[in-house]
Design brief:
Elements: E1 9-18, E2 29-30, E3 37-47, E4 50-58, H1 66-76, E5 82-84, E6 87-89, E7 95-101, H2 117-130, E8 134-138, H3 151-168, E9 172-175, H4 179-188, E10 192-195, H5 205-212, E11 216-219, H6 240-258, E12 265-268, H7 277-285, E13 298-299, H8 305-309, H9 320-332, E14 337-340, H10 343-362
Parallel strand pairs: 7-8, 7-14, 8-9, 9-10, 10-11, 11-12, 13-14
Antiparallel strand pairs: 1-3, 2-3, 3-4, 5-6
């Protein structure tokens, strides 16, 4: 079977990360215009839904195939900065998105701020002081089995908080899958729509984002119309890494075709959403593959079940160490945004990581 046949699906995963590009012209490539450099690609070829080839190819020896060259160009291209109100967020280093849940039943911190808009906004401002570039406000739990919240109740939960945060100068995202909530949140001052359903759950959601011209995070889940977990808890994938990539690629193209600027689209592989432990681990280990889509990557793994599963069933409140490990793994693989509960600790960990990268990049 010819590797470069038109019917083969081709993927490139950056690998063999290098401490520094100094003295290695032509041997290493920059990852998404950021702090990481790599010396090789893992080339994956798929035919009929099955991988038939995996090969490591040095950066300087990539075949002169138009499809591979296009993917390589997207992998290395700098990601556009996001203009969020008065703030401009550059995508050349990992940023922290702080989670602010206005719910009674989120698996981790549900009920902590419900009914107290002033206190919640204060907590959001504190996240900014602690190092959050974005505060992500949500009014509906996406934990497995959570009930759907009426749109009006969700608006009442989030809008007063967003108004206060926007007045404070914070960059705010609205975590919702409902068009009406998106509209109300954007009118209140939110800057980004973060949708676990990738604008598929609500038929008007895409229209709202197109009209607003705002950045949007498209997250993968098995079947958004059936809820965040798609009616499954994992095990339904033949190849979770390439299938998630294909799904996000198709979704990005559809959203661009509808009128959203590609430079304003971010992607999230949806760790924990309708995926088994092995699925999640495969996505985390293969995260760099998603740079081939040319969009900033948002990684949301904070306090999730994967941490408990790998640490003696630790409860959500006791998953800080594991969450930091996953955030640093994301930074190592080039994720532009990590979405977390523990802002201070994550921001501190990333500052130390950044310090080590800076030193490596300037050489000895």
């Amino acid at each position: 079977m010819d590797l470069l046949s038109p019917s083969a699906r081709l993927y490139l995963r950056p690998t063999q990360f290098a401490d520094t590009p100094i003295g290695r012209d032509g041997e290493v490539a920059r990852l998404a215009g950021g702090l990481q450099w790599f010396a090789a690609y893992e080339l994956i070829a798929v035919e009929g839904g099955k991988r038939f080839l995996q090969r490591t190819i040095p950066v300087g020896e990539l075949p002169d195939d138009a499809r591979l060259q296009a993917i390589a160009a997207r992998i290395s291209a700098p990601r556009a900065a996001l203009t969020l109100g008065e703030r401009v967020l550059r995508m050349d280093q990992p940023l922290v998105m702080g989670i602010l849940n206005m719910t009674p039943d989120s698996f981790s911190d549900g009920g902590a701020h419900l009914g107290n808009a002033e206190g919640a906004a204060g907590a959001g401002v504190d996240m900014g002081v602690a190092g959050a570039a974005i505060v992500d406000v949500g009014g509906e739990s996406t934990r497995p089995g959570a009930e759907t919240v009426w749109e009006g109740d969700e608006i009442k939960r989030v809008v007063p908080v967003i108004e206060r945060l926007a007045r404070s100068g914070a960059a705010v995202s609205i975590d919702t899958r409902k068009a009406g909530v998106m509209e109300a949140a954007l009118a209140a001052g939110a800057h980004i729509v973060n949708d676990v359903a990738a604008l598929l759950w609500d038929d008007r959601a895409l229209e709202v984002v197109v009209k607003a011209g705002c950045p949007v995070v498209l997250m993968h889940s098995p079947d958004p119309k059936k809820g965040a977990h798609g009616g499954v808890m994992g095990g339904a994938y033949g190849d979770v890494l390439t299938e998630t990539y294909d799904w996000l690629e198709a979704r990005v193209e559809a959203v661009v075709a509808a009128g959203v600027d590609r430079a304003k689209i971010l992607i999230d592989p949806g760790i924990g959403f309708g995926k088994s432990l092995s699925d999640n681990l495969a996505l985390l280990n293969g995260l760099a593959l998603f740079h081939g889509l040319g969009c900033p990557i948002v990684l949301g793994a904070s306090r999730k079940r994967i941490v408990g599963a790998l640490s003696n069933e630790a409860k959500a409140a006791d998953r800080l160490g594991g969450s930091l490990a996953l955030a640093l793994k994301g930074a190592e693989l080039g994720a532009q945004i990590v979405r977390v509960h523990d802002v201070f600790e994550t921001a501190q960990a990333l500052r130390v990581w950044r310090g080590m990268r800076d030193q490596a990049l300037v050489g000895r």
